[in-house]
Specification:
The complex is a heterodimer of chains A (527) and B (482). Chain A has 527 residues and is mainly α. Chain A is 43% helix and 8% strand. Chain A has a domain at 34-191 and 497-527: Alpha Horseshoe (Serine Threonine Protein Phosphatase 5, Tetratricopeptide repeat), CATH 1.25.40. Chain A contains 21 helices and 13 strands. In chain A, strand 8 (339-341) and strand 9 (347-350) form a beta hairpin. Chain A starts with 5 loop residues before the first strand and ends with a helix. With 482 residues, chain B is mainly beta. Chain B has a domain at 256-320. Chain B is 3% helix and 49% strand. Chain B is globular, with a radius of gyration of 30 Å. Classes of the chains: A mainly alpha (527), B mainly beta (482). Chains A and B meet through strand 1, helix 1, helix 5 and helix 20 of A and strand 1, strand 5, strand 6, strand 7 and strand 8 of B.
């Protein structure tokens, strides 16, 4: 029997070249090509700063969520901060995911420079130190902010490799503080005393940030030895003479405040660390520009295009709590009936909280602090105004507070620091014996009002409950919601639970991807 | 970068072995070896074998010689094929420049750049493993040919982007071989010569049914959505255990007819006083004003189902799969009649068991809004005209989009061959054809045939955004060969 009729066998094998399988991206460099030259390092350092300015990054405009948790201001119903001010946020709140994700995005940009820059040959040591010092500063500040917001967080010090992400547990807050301090000390050591570019950090920027980290850490961790460290670092900054308050004796207190917040006076002698914003004038340039001031500038007259987004108003109680004799009050806030004046001196009309935005309390204040720099008769949605993350007035108050907390009394130096801030505001000095911690915290509140520091002060001194009781007692009118008055019982801060709400939950998106990250017990129950 | 240029290359080698034993046993083996520039150095090449065997039973000596059975063959095959349909350069890291990578010093914009997407050097060929089993029969002197083909197709190492891990901080994630999809189905083909002779009638039918199921997705099988997930945007979901790109939204439980119904239902957007200490909504039950103007939930609005029973209608917990974009079956039926020089060919297409999300439904321009709710008992389907929250993606706009369509009809007349040759021509035919002539469907949109997946996007399907319907066409012609 014929077993096989036929077999057809066709095998075509070409021992060919593989050249066409190796394709360079013709439109841009790929990762393998990057970090070859000093120029690449310089670009990556810029991108590390840029990590703070994305519109979803904290200092893009999202820090308002932090101010909204405080007793200063609340977000209107459709503002992105609304859930935080009512303590209705949870692990799915987008703003919380943005805080977390964009801070790690920024941290990883620093990590990349720290890993790659030392491997590139031919960079002068002083230049290399400068590059590394800048990103150490940024990373240290970012870890400080992460622990302020979330308490325990994963510490990641090397750029990622595996696209599936990390499995890394949260480190205790004490370790995160230690990392922030280690990074800032490296920055202090590596950075030069001056930079060619306005806006780049210098060694003294790191020293000043260390003073703040030590003071806040002393409260948060109960590490009282750090009060002395904070006092010493703050004194070092003051004694160096690097910074001065914007305080021209020829000008009135009000005029000095306008000058401080003027667009013409950015990176002034008072700015220690300011996240830089730049706008080419429209919406399109939104990544470097910022909607940070515009987000809360009041909606004065939309028909005339004189408006911010009006996302926040201040509690009515602020009017009662804030002494009318303090020139900062009417510099910082509009109240009903106040004239609205442009930078050219034209009076456009009177401020009215009822027309400022659909939902606001009668008699509530409208943010004005950032209006001074924007008070043109036509305003676009983006702004050049830098975010003053740390300014000298803050540092002076940190000095006074650390001085007090270190040994229970305010020294002559601390008294001088404290009253320097008051003097610029046109207020009488307070004697050392009368400068209690409450007095300092109140001074910080008015001086730094709407600068997103108040919530952290309430947090580290565990005094939010008292503050909320105070504003509720003074809040007599009801918020309006699309014309329907809500019940007084709906006072939004009533949801605050101290054991839970001082720190944010981990975002669900992080828990989903990072198997080692476990939700905090006080938040896990509600998931 | 919005504009760009990409280059890719592919190399293939191919081998085939064919074995035929007495026309009874037929074996074919193939091997492909493909290389693609879309993968990194170590993963460029994929080897894809396939083997199929057939047994022609009618050739066996033990088979009795049945006059009606011309040919009977069973076939089985198994093969692996590959796809390189991934993005270009995914194996390498990307560098981001401009925009959010920039910063400002000295009051001006300074360019920056950094790694914006991690490399995935492990990216490799997507593999499709298919097993099939088929029976081919030729009956009644080739008058009836039937082929039934069962297949089981597993697409593994499917290209999908990594779920973004927040601590990575990268702006985008590379694609990986991260998904797995199963397709199991049957294809039946029947060709029949019903009448033969001066009058000839043939019927050709193709029938297909498939079950599509997602087995694995990236990020611990996280659901994937095709749009931003905002509750008013129609979108598709890909979820493990379900089909690719099912329609996702709120389920409905009719329309509120009375205020009592409104205030006894879970919180949608009723007039609210507060949430009590247990977190339950306390409604302002006295808010019963004019329903023609009311902006909070009132009679005449949809009652959404509280799927998890927590007393709140929320996008996290109360959306579900509300429509299937993969039909239960499809059928194509062609009947051809010829008599002397005349030929009539009629193609019907049918689709059964498919849904379309009709975005135009409920628009004020559509007819069904004339039946809008205007008082208790007036409608349980069409909400009031000034509604609250009725625009959420819900079962309201999900419609059954089954159809039977007269897809193609052709009538032709050919002159007799001898006559044609007399005048020196090869053939001479006059014809008219019409396409999309007649459709039976309950779908209220322009055209039910929108369920086709959009090119280049496997996960968006079945959403009718008012796409221009298929046109009805008539063509008349004269075909002459010399």
């Amino acid at each position: 029997m014929k077993r096989i009729l036929y077999i057809i066998l066709t095998i075509s094998l070409f021992v060919g070249c593989e050249d066409n399988l190796i394709q360079e991206n013709p439109t841009g460099p790929t990762g393998d090509d990057f970090f070859q030259t000093e120029r690449d390092v310089q670009l990556a350092v810029v991108a590390a700063y840029g990590g703070l300015t994305n519109e979803n990054a904290p200092w893009g405009n999202n820090m308002w969520g932090v101010e909204a948790m405080s007793d200063n201001a609340y977000g209107i119903a459709d503002a992105p901060y609304n859930r935080l001010d009512e303590f209705e946020h949870d692990s799915n709140t987008g703003l919380i995911q943005n805080y977390y994700g964009y801070l790690y995005r920024a941290i990883n940009r620093s990590n990349l420079v720290l890993q790659k820059a030392p491997q590139i040959e031919g960079i002068a040591q002083a230049d290399l130190d400068n590059y590394l010092g800048q990103v150490y500063f940024l990373r240290g500040y970012e870890y400080f902010l992460l622990t302020l917001l979330f308490e325990d967080v994963p510490i990641i010090l090397e750029p990622p490799v595996e696209p599936a992400g990390y499995s890394v547990a949260a480190s205790p807050a004490a370790d995160v503080y230690a990392q922030a301090i280690a990074d800032l000390e490296m920055a202090e050591q590596l950075l030069p005393d001056t930079q060619d570019d306005a806006g780049r950090v210098i060694s003294m920027t790191a020293t000043a940030m260390l003073a703040k980290v030590y003071l806040f850490g002393a409260d948060e961790l109960g590490n009282t030895a750090w009060y002395g460290e904070a006092e010493q670092k703050a004194a070092q900054v003051i004694n160096s003479g690097t910074y001065q308050l914007v305080d021209d004796p020829a000008l009135t207190p009000h005029e000095n405040l306008v000058s401080l917040w003027s667009l013409d006076n950015q990176n002034s002698t008072e700015d220690i660390f300011a996240v830089q914003h730049y706008s080419s004038g429209g919406w399109s340039n939104g990544n470097v520009a910022s909607s940070y001031p515009m987000g809360i500038n009041p909606r004065l007259d939309r028909a005339l295009n004189i408006w911010g987004f009006g996302w926040m108003h201040t509690y009515e109680s602020v009017e009662a709590q804030w002494d009318d004799a303090d020139p900062r009050k009417r510099f910082t806030l509009f109240f009903d009936g106040d004239d609205v004046v442009t930078i050219n001196g034209d009076t456009l009309g009177q401020y009215s909280s009822s027309t400022a935005r659909g939902e606001s309390r009668r008699d509530s204040g409208g943010p004005k602090k950032f209006w001074w720099s924007e008070s043109f008769d036509r305003v676009s949605g983006q702004s050049d105004l830098d975010a003053k993350v740390l300014r000298y007035a803050d540092l002076l108050l940190i000095h006074a507070e650390a001085d007090l907390m270190a040994d229970g009394t305010v020294s002559a130096a601390g008294e001088t620091s404290f009253n320097e801030v008051r003097a610029r505001a046109g207020l009488a000095p307070i004697a050392a014996a009368s400068i209690t911690r409450d007095v300092i915290l109140e001074e910080r509140r008015w001086e730094l009002f709407l600068e997103c520091h108040r919530w952290f002060d309430l947090m580290r001194t565990q005094s939010a409950e008292q503050a909320f009781d105070d504003i509720e007692a003074l809040d007599n009118t009801l918020p309006q919601y699309f014309g329907y008055a809500l019940n007084k019982n709906d006072f939004e801060k009533q949801g605050f639970i101290p054991q839970k709400h001082y720190k944010l939950p981990y975002p669900q998106a992080a828990l989903d991807q990072n198997p080692a990250l476990v939700q905090k017990p006080e938040w896990a129950a509600s998931e | 970068m919005g504009n760009g240029q990409v280059e890719s290359g592919i190399n293939s080698y191919f081998g085939r072995v064919f074995y035929d034993y007495q026309g009874k046993y037929l074996v074919t083996g193939t091997v492909r070896r493909d290389g693609s520039s879309r993968f990194g150095e170590d993963n460029r090449w994929g080897t894809f074998p396939a083997l199929s065997a057939a047994w022609r039973i009618t050739e066996e000596s033990f088979m009795p010689d049945l006059p009606w059975l011309g040919d009977l063959k069973i076939r089985a095959g198994y093969g692996i094929s590959g796809s390189d349909n991934a993005g270009n350069y995914q194996y390498a890291a990307a560098v981001g420049q401009g925009g959010e990578y920039d910063y400002s010093f000295n009051g001006g914009e300074i360019p920056g750049a950094t790694i914006s997407r991690l490399a995935n050097p492990l990216l490799r060929w997507e593999e499709i493993r298919m097993a099939n089993f088929a029976i081919d029969a030729s009956l009644f002197g080739n008058r009836l040919n039937v082929s039934v083909d069962f297949y089981d197709k597993l697409t593994s190492d499917l290209f999908l982007p990594f779920a973004p891990a927040l601590e990575l901080g990268n702006e985008s994630t590379p694609e990986g071989n991260l998904g797995e999809i199963s397709n199991k189905g049957v294809d039946i083909t029947i060709n029949s010569v019903n009448m033969q002779g001066a009058f000839t009638w043939t019927t050709d039918m193709v029938f297909g049914t498939v079950k599509n199921e997602i087995l694995k997705l990236p990020g611990n099988n996280a659901d994937r959505f095709t749009s931003d997930g905002w509750q008013n945007n129609p979108h598709n979901i890909s979820r493990v255990g379900e089909e690719v790109g099912a329609i996702y939204g709120y389920a409905l439980d009719g329309i509120f007819q009375t205020w009592d119904e409104v205030y006894s239902h879970a919180y949608q957007d009723q007039a609210l006083i507060e949430f009590d200490t247990d977190g339950n909504p306390v409604y302002d039950v006295n808010a019963r004003d004019d329903v023609t103007r009311r902006t909070s939930t009132s009679p005449g609005d949809f009652r959404y189902k509280d799927l998890n029973g927590d007393g709140f209608i929320d996008s996290e917990n109360d959306r579900t799969i509300i429509g299937s974009v993969i039909p239960d079956f499809t059928i194509g039926l062609t009947n051809t009649f010829s008599y002397k020089g005349f030929l009539l060919s009629v193609l019907f297409q049918g689709v059964q068991g498919i849904h379309v999300y009709n975005t135009l439904k409920g628009d004020y321009t559509t007819r069904e809004r004339l039946d809008a709710w205007d008082g208790e008992g007036s409608s349980n389907n069409e909400p009031r005209l000034a509604g609250n929250g009725n625009g959420r993606t819900s079962a309201y706009r999900v419609e059954q989009a089954d159809f039977i369509r007269l897809k193609n009809l052709k009538l032709a007349y050919s002159l007799p061959r001898d006559l044609v040759s007399k005048i020196g021509l090869g053939a001479f035919q006059l014809y008219v054809t019409g396409t999309n002539l007649w459709t039976i469907t309950k779908y209220t949109g322009y055209d039910p045939e929108v369920g086709l997946r959009e090119a280049g996007d496997n996960e968006t399907a079945g959403i009718d955004r008012g796409r221009y319907p298929l046109t009805q066409q008539f063509t008349g012609g004269l075909s002459v060969t010399f």
